[in-house]
Design brief:
With 84 residues, the protein is an alpha+beta fold. It has two helices and three strands, in the order E-E-E-H-H. The protein has one domain.
């Protein structure tokens, strides 16, 4: 299996298993405290951004700064979107 991308910044835990096309998101930190809905969302969108960029063969999938900035904006857009 291909190397796994992992997000461990800010104690959030998420991983992309590229070959298996699988994302795993932790729901508790290392001491057992549950992550907030915001933290889980941030981690999910971060890992999904890595996966999409990887699927597109974009070298940006390795750029943590870009991925984090994009994922934060994506999470905010999705959480504040209103459809009428």
């Amino acid at each position: 299996m291909e190397v796994i991308e992992a997000m461990i910044d800010k104690s959030y835990v998420g991983r992309v298993h590229y070959d298996a096309q699988h994302i795993r998101i932790g729901t508790r930190n290392h001491s057992g405290k549950p992550f907030t809905k915001q933290e889980v969302g941030d981690t999910f969108w971060h890992e999904l951004t890595h996966a999409i960029l990887h699927d597109m063969d974009s070298p940006l999938y390795r750029d943590e700064r870009f991925v984090s900035a994009f994922a934060t904006r994506l999470n905010k857009a999705i959480n504040t979107a209103k459809f009428e």
